[in-house]
Write a structure and sequence with these properties.
With 126 residues, the chain is of the alpha/beta class. It has a single domain, classed as Rossmann fold. 45% of the residues lie in helices and 18% in strands. The chain is globular, with a radius of gyration of 13 Å. The two termini are 12 Å apart.
Length: 126
Amino acid sequence: MTILLSKPGLDGHDVGVKVLAYALKDAGFNVIYTGLRKSIEEIVAQAEVVNADMIGLSILSGTHLILCQRMQEVLDERGIAIPWLVGGNIPHGDKGAIEGFGAVAAFPTGTKVDEVISFLKEFQME
């Protein structure tokens, strides 16, 4: 499974997503990290280029609701059906809204890396 990880918006903190990327690689996933400050449009375009099976957004900036809503809009506009998820500084109370936008999962603040890996392994088997 190829997972494209990215940092949308103006958030400049990527230590957490890099830790996740290495853990996912160790768990056997093919991981591509796009880097900082990507637009949703750039992320979706890159996911198409690399034929990603999943897009993972890491958001710490507090703009997670706006960015997640835009994520599904761009996928729909382009007729692309790549599943996506989000983690980072996500309040527990926003999980339902994010999944309502179309995310297959939203990992709130405090989620352990092992939980993300377990979710992706189960998702891969579906």
